[in-house]
């Protein structure tokens, strides 16, 4: 089990207890690997206590806050098991679902996604925004990003090895996991309320997720720019032909200077907008070319598994 954590001091002990109770009821050996993503509260102290009390618990400390996907990458890079399940540590991902996910793996599936049907007491505005974002992503992304499937998933060792071979530094596992293929299935669930603390994933993070899914897995915005640029060119040629024809007919000044200014403003706006889109892709290329690591570790606390 790989669990990224950020400021989860209040809920960690309960998360551990519920996971332990569930995992001990499964016919499988298990370990928990927490990844502290630069928490500013007492999360590290709780993790050290869990580590000292249970040899099946380990944790990684990132040198600073690198973000959820980077923390997830760190956990997957340090996992050495037959299967890995990633989940959040706030208990909105129900541990009871692990039995169904393990059963699906034993039935032959290499990836088991947990898909939210609903979230208890989720604000309606947030629910609508999330639904619209996923619908927009599904229309433009060049890989299947499963709607309402967060990072609660089971992956087989061969899928884990495939993910590790991918060269990109900026990772979004909601897109990369479907991209690698293999046999995949979905298990539905209803997300519970947070067990404690406050959510670190607001509309800003949702917007960031949408942007990453859009620009990391789609070149549609660039094609839209090409199409709109083509239409704008055709319109400009037609308008120029109209002006020339008007002058050839002997008129001293073509009418409609206001429309000329409007056309210029519209075309310039289109150019600036798509220069911005190109800039986003260039920035992503720049980040990849620099090859800075996805995360840096300041401490690794794991027990050697018994053989």
Uncertain stretches of 5 or more adjacent residues: none
Q: Which CATH architecture of the largest domain? A: Alpha-Beta Complex
CATH class of the largest domain: Alpha Beta
Mean pLDDT: 78
- N-to-C SSE series? EHEHEHEHEHEHHEHHHE
Number of H- or I-type helical stretches: 10
| Main sheet overview | 4 strands, mixed
Radius of gyration over alpha carbons?
Answer: 25 Å
Distance between the termini: 19 Å
Shape: elongated
Counted up, domains total: 2
Counting copies of identical and different chains, the oligomeric state is single chain
Q: What is the percent of helical residues?
A: 40-55%
Q: Give the strand line-up of the largest sheet.
A: 1-2-3-8
**What is the CATH topology descriptor of the largest domain?**
Spore Coat Polysaccharide Biosynthesis Protein SpsA, Chain A
> Structural class given helices, strands, pairing?
alpha/beta
Strand content: 15-25%
> Can you identify the CATH superfamily of the largest domain?
Spore Coat Polysaccharide Biosynthesis Protein SpsA, Chain A
The number of strands is: 8
Structure description:
With about 300 residues, the chain is an alpha/beta fold. It folds into two domains: about 1-120 and about 150-205 and about 295-300, Spore Coat Polysaccharide Biosynthesis Protein SpsA, Chain A (Alpha-Beta Complex); about 220-290. Helices cover about 50% and strands about 15% of the residues. The chain is built from ten helices and eight strands. The protein has helices spanning about 10-25, 45-55, 70-75, 100-105, 125-140, 155-165, 175-180, 205-215, 220-250, 255-290, and strands at about 1-5, 30-35, 55-60, 85, 110-120, 150-155, 185-190, 295-300. The strands form two sheets. Strands 1-2-3-8 form a four-stranded mixed sheet, sandwiched between helices. Helix 5 (about 125-140) runs parallel beside helix 8 (about 205-215) and helix 9 (about 220-250) runs antiparallel to helix 10. The model has no long low-confidence stretch (mean pLDDT about 80).
């Amino acid at each position: 089990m790989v669990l990224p954590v950020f400021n989860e001091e209040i809920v960690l002990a309960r998360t551990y207890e519920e996971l332990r109770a569930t995992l001990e009821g499964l016919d499988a050996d298990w370990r928990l690997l927490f990844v502290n993503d630069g928490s500013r509260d007492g999360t590290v102290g709780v993790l050290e206590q869990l580590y000292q009390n249970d040899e099946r618990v380990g944790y990684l400390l990132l040198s600073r806050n690198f973000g959820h996907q980077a923390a997830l990458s760190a956990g997957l890079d340090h996992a050495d098991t037959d299967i890995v399940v990633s989940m959040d540590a706030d208990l909105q991902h129900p541990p009871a679902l692990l039995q169904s996910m393990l059963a699906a793996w034993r039935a032959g599936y290499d990836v088991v996604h947990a898909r939210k049907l609903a979230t208890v007491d989720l604000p309606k505005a947030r629910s609508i925004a999330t639904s619209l974002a996923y619908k927009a992503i599904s229309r433009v992304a060049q890989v299947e990003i499963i709607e309402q499937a967060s990072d609660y998933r089971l992956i087989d060792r061969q899928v884990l090895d495939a993910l590790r071979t991918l060269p990109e530094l900026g990772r979004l596992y909601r897109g990369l996991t479907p991209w690698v293929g293999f046999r995949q299935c979905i298990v539905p669930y209803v997300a519970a309320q947070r067990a404690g603390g406050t959510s670190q994933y607001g509309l800003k993070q949702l917007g960031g997720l949408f942007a990453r899914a859009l620009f990391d897995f789609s070149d549609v915005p660039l094609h839209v720019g090409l199409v709109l640029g083509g239409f704008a060119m055709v319109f400009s040629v037609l308008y120029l032909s109209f002006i020339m024809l008007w002058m050839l007919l002997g008129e001293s000044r073509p009418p409609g200077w206001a429309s000329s200014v409007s056309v210029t403003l519209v075309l310039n706006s289109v150019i600036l907008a798509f220069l911005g889109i190109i800039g986003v892709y260039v920035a992503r290329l720049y980040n990849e070319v620099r090859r800075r690591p996805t995360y840096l570790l300041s401490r690794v606390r794991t027990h050697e598994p018994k053989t």
